[in-house]
Amino acid sequence: TLPPDVLQTMIELSDKVLADKDAKSHGGYLAGQIDSELLVDHQLLEQAGVMGFFLGAVRQFVIQCKCQMMPQPQYVEAIQREEWLIQMLTMWIISQQPGEYNPMHIHTQCQISAVMYLKVPKMLPSKKEHRPNDDGSILFVSNASRDIDFSVPNIIIHPAPGDFYIFGAHQQHAVYPYRCEEGQEDTERRSISFNTTFLNQAGSLIHVY
Description:
- The protein is of the alpha+beta class.
- The protein is 24% helix and 28% strand.
- The chain is built from four helices and nine strands.
- Strands 1-2-9-4-7 form a five-stranded antiparallel sheet. The chain has a four-stranded antiparallel sheet with strand order 3-8-5-6, with no helix packed on it.
- The two termini are 31 Å apart.
């Protein structure tokens, strides 16, 4: 979950970008069937004092994943001692409206991706009661089996403002469309995504030990 001050900063920063007539669209490089997808200049993150927070969060994600892959104490200690270098590549705002969606996709030319949710409107409930969380949710899909006792082939999450998810860039994911009441004033669901890459100090990209 984003700290309240970071959430507020990102709302204000995205307000500024969305109001800028000269803001650059990133939609031509994205899978989403969404009209408004605008780039966030790295300088804005530096000026707002939040670049370090996001790089630090990704760094902790990398360390945690590496420790899970090699849980032996000697490896965990070495991973935690290692200097991990994180680079922010691209960040963009997704100003989503009812009926817009992101089909199943991955992120390319990067290693770690993230999405944070800034605004979530009041949505109409899903049409089927036995699938109440589909509309407006983000779906992460793996290649796990259909064995529901010992594996989970997909996770569906109905996001709320402040939710912050970090995941491997090649993790398949999608975002379902949603509906709002006719005449509702605030129908925007706003999120921000970014892509990063990482190195350890020795320069190895992935397999360090």
